[in-house]
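As a next step, we paired sequence with structure tokens, yielding the entry below.
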Amino acid sequence: MASTTTKNGTSKYTETVGKATGAAGASDATGGDPEGQLAPLSKEAGLMFSTPSDEQIQAMLNDPSLEFAPQLKKLAEGELVTGLLEGMGPVVELTRMDRQTKEETTSLVNTWILAGPNGGARVSILSSVQLDKKLPPFIGGIVSILRGKEVNTQNGNRVTEYMVSGPKKANGERRSWVRPQVIDAVSVEGGKAAPQLAAPSAAAGGEDHASA
């Protein structure tokens, strides 16, 4: 007995559109949607999509005529990255498992963009409280970032040490990581208490929950 295949209205519509646009198959006409739930693509739009081989991807990545948006890379322990520090990149969502509640929590994390020697390749790395403090003086110059060991604190937070360095400025000017001090508005008239230095607020949280 010959087998039969039943097609619903959507599949028939997709097949008809595929034939009319010259697409190879129904999935091509719908941009790779096998169930045909998305609006079909024109033949010209369909030519924008392809599945390159690993060799083609590598050739594209090594093409000196191309310029790439930053690719996210998480530094591993003991890994060093060196490049031109362009500045902060887009914020990304970081999902963690809360060890106490066993629930997933999502937070927004800063990133930093480093460009390669030829300026075409870029990487963005997850920031941390320490990197948010250490990297700003190096913006616009070459910087090296070494990720150290990760330590878990008693309250479940993670603390990671980063070594950050870069060549001295050509003009001899020294970089400064001193944070500005803010004076509280406290009256000193009549022998009252002297002004107190307000403790600087912590930088926005990054990959690490707390700084070392």
Observations:
- The mean pLDDT is 76.
